Amino acid sequence: MTPTPSRAASLLLIAAGFVIWASAFTLLYAALSLGCAFGWQARLVGEISLSRAVLLAIWAVHLAALVGLLIYCVRQPRGEATRGFIRKVAIGSTVAALVATVWTGVAIPAVSQCL
């Protein structure tokens, strides 16, 4: 018999996707503000500005974390009704957070950072 996850672990698994999204949103906003304040848009890293490179890196790390979380949620055992319900809700909330994170950063490559 496998142990059932505790309530705290279940709630954490359900909320983890939006915690990652909130981290992405906050760090993207902070990096954008710092980049504009310190003139990162004028410094180039290869073909793109330093500001854009930092924003894309932050976004990519968070997207990778969400994809990893989604894979973890999908691999959870289906088992009993409560565990199956938690698994489905965790998958749904992680997918919603992934969509929200994509939507949050989709304009990074196309839009000017500082006006």
Strand order of the largest sheet: 1-2
- Percent helix: over 70%
Mind describing the biggest β-sheet?
2 strands, antiparallel
Q: Strand content of the residues, in percent?
A: under 5%
Shape designation: elongated
**Helix/sheet category:** mainly alpha
User: Averaged pLDDT, please?
Assistant: 90
Beta strands, count: 2
User: What is the H/E order?
Assistant: HEEHH
Architecture overview:
It is a single chain. The protein is mainly alpha-helical. It has helices at 7-38, 50-74, 81-105; strands spanning 44-45, 48-49. The chain has a two-stranded antiparallel sheet with strand order 1-2. α1 (7-38) runs parallel beside α3 (81-105). The termini are far apart. The relative contact order is 0.19.
What would you say about this model in short?
This protein is mainly alpha-helical. The protein is 71% helix and 3% strand. It has a two-stranded antiparallel ribbon with strand order 1-2.
How does the SSE layout of this entry go?
Blueprint: H1 7-38, E1 44-45, E2 48-49, H2 50-74, H3 81-105
Antiparallel strand pairs: 1-2
Features:
two-stranded antiparallel sheet, elongated, 3 helices, mainly alpha, 71% helix, 115 residues, single chain, 2 strands
